[in-house]
Amino acid sequence: MLPPDLKPEQFNGYSLEARKLVTNYISTLQRLPLSFLPSLLREAIDYDFKFPAERRALEKELANLNSLSPEQLKDWIQGFSQIRLSPQLERFDWVNLPAQFVEQLSSHLWTTHQLDAFRIAATAYADRLHAAVPAEPPPIPRLGITVIGQGVSAHDDPLFRKLRPHGAHFTKVNPENGLEVLLNAVAARAKSHPAPYAHWYIDGGLEAPYAPTLTCVSYHALEPARAALSSKMRPEINRPGMGPEALRTLLAQMRPADLGLAKSGDPVMARFQLKVLTEGSGTQIFSTTFAQWTAREALRRAQPLTVLVRFAPRQRQKPMNEMLAAGHEVAELDPLGSLVDADMGAYYNWLNQQRLPGADHSSFLVWFEGHNEAIAIGPSVPRGTESTAATDLQQLLTWAT
Amino acid sequence: MTSYHSPRTKKDRDAEMISNPREFSRQLGWSRREFLRSAAGVTLGSSFLPSSLLARTGIPTGKRKVVVITFGGGARDQETFAPEGQENIPHLMRELIPQSTFFTQVVNRGILGHYVATASLATGVYETVNNFASLPPEHPTVFEYFRKDLKRPASDAWVVAPSNGFNRIGESNHRSYGPGLGARVILPKHLLSAATSGGGADFEHLLRDNYETPFYTPQLGGNEFELQQLGMMLKLSVDDFKSHARTLSSPDELSVYIVRQLMRQMAPSLLWITMHDIDIAHAGAYSLYIDGIRRTDRLCTEVWKTIQSEPEYAGKTTLFILPDFGRDSDDDSGGNGFQHHRTGDALSRTTWMMALGAGVREGVVFDRPTDSTDLVPTLGSILGFSASLAQGKPIPELS
């Protein structure tokens, strides 16, 4: 089936809000090429489970496409129109399985050497969309905080090498009650600027006490879900003929209830956590990967005003299948390796925050937990500087923001 | 696939496109050249070189040997050749690069999956086989050209690969070549697993099964090396093999151990080694990715030292080292930095190659673009066979 053949009843499998959204724009969708439309539907089919920022972005994108004249629309999507698809892709149930279609489209683009053409088309479209529908600036400047090095008493290599050129490096930071100070600061922002999913606390281990106004995701709290996922994956991995693509398809079909995530009462967060565990490579086995990927996805999708990410020691490397099969025994930890992971993770958290609107006014703080070292980055913080003056985290937050 | 729903900054767009991917590759090659000139003391090579350097060495074609090392799971410049990354590759920087001819801009225009990319390197054609299926390449491999054209026995062409998924890399299903004309394939992890009857706590660290996803353990089929041949061909008892394996720390170390044994006992003229320790990056742990780079740096040098010390190889062997492709840039919002190679951006496509040993000029760097598919025709010109169905062209500076 091709897009011009679309009919409203074909979206009966979509959840309520998603169905209402796409059927409102059915005539626009009919005019889009098959190389483009399923990517849009992949977002739309999950509309009911998306964060407010994602919903607004999708609504604006559809409204923008709807506002274009036939000639304008042709111009906007001409790059996609030139992508050649296979009959198998045209026969695929891309209305009900858009994510799986996009996976197959990706494979087709690689195989037929059309990936570069698709990249150019996608980049051109994104540029035009961002120009036509500018991103909303945040109501207050964003603040990112990353805490690294839990459990490390000493290390050899210098920390924060990637971030130092962008901010000030402090070496006499009073570590007393440091995590509490930072969590209180996040809670204060949540109180003064309340909004759904606007203030996050992500912990790669056991979460510390936090204000109920924060959206919290932790590796520890998801242990039952991770165990459930592992128990479902193990027999599949050992099944003859199972490969990464088949495994990915299987994971993509999972629902929050399959991993016991539906009990939380928040379907948006249940779906988010499911995707972190099923779409993030390594999030199931390494807590450092979990923390970094969760932060990336939270920033990309929810566009929060505040994110505090605390890394914790991950398990030592073993054969992957064995890590996946681990029972309830205590895993041997690798604190020093985790410090290196988290140091890079902090840099990625900053990069991902800077991709959001309002980056020029955003602030960022990284602290080596329990120690005297930190980096502060902000509009008024001089770049590439060092400070040996005694200070504390509250003071650094004040300077950075 | 790049998500066009990801928020992007001007910096992202600059890094993705600069003006176009070809321009980005050129700038990348230039940066590598400058890093190497300042750190390793290499000089810029001229393209107007005397031809047939290898012929001038006086080594008869029939006596020449080639060893190829590919990395499955590329490493980015910032963790290798850039100033901040050079601490991770001390052996390449100090020992190998000064002895090598280095190509800074090798572009892979094919599919960036490790099996299919290695198959493309080995055939000189951008293969499109399913990266995760147990399928042979569709075009003749370098091993088939070598054996058929030069009438070499099966014992003269070998592949050592850590991943079980590479068991079909030794020969294609091409009707003019194919079964019986390819390389023997050794999968050391499979061998160790068989030797230990499926595992054992002492060997867990050598049986890591990371191959583009942390969980993949492909089923075996095809021409893998059988356990009983361990003793017959490599003169290695199962007990000795197990005993030595206990002293090693990674699958690639196990591979290099097998490579040494193979060079001593069989001395193949064409030996292809793929390494995969760096590919742990897919699990997202940066420290393990760096460990993989440092180990690969050391192991490449160990192979080079073995070449120099083994009488069958010393003075008549050309060694090629190249990643199959790169990894995603930190600046591309569609990826997740070092973790994957999924965006298809210029950084993940533009890699490098070094050649050293017989017939190769030392301490020279070339930053003109070459193609991944040029490797097989280049090997053909060195060893004396014609890669007639390959898409690439012999690299003149090495031919």
Question: What features would you describe in this structure?
Answer:
The complex is a heterodimer of chains A (401) and B (399). Chain A is α/β, with parallel strands linked by helices. Chain A is 47% helix and 10% strand. Chain A contains 17 helices and 10 strands. Chain A has helices spanning 16-24, 26-29, 37-44, 52-67, 70-76, 78-81, 87-91, 98-111, 115-132, 178-192, 223-237, 244-252, 267-279, 287-302, 320-325, 335-354, 393-400; strands at residues 143-148, 168-170, 173-174, 199-203, 215-218, 306-310, 363-368, 374-377, 385-387, 391-392. In chain A, a hairpin with a 5-residue loop joins β7 and β8 (374-377). Chain A is globular. The mean pLDDT of chain A is 93. Chain B is α/β, with parallel strands linked by helices. Chain B has 13 helices and 10 strands. In chain B, strands 1, 2, 3, 4, 5, 6, 7, 8, 9 and 10 form a 10-stranded mixed sheet that branches. Chain B is globular and about 50 Å long. In chain B, 62% of the residues are buried. The chains are: A alpha/beta (401), B alpha/beta (399).
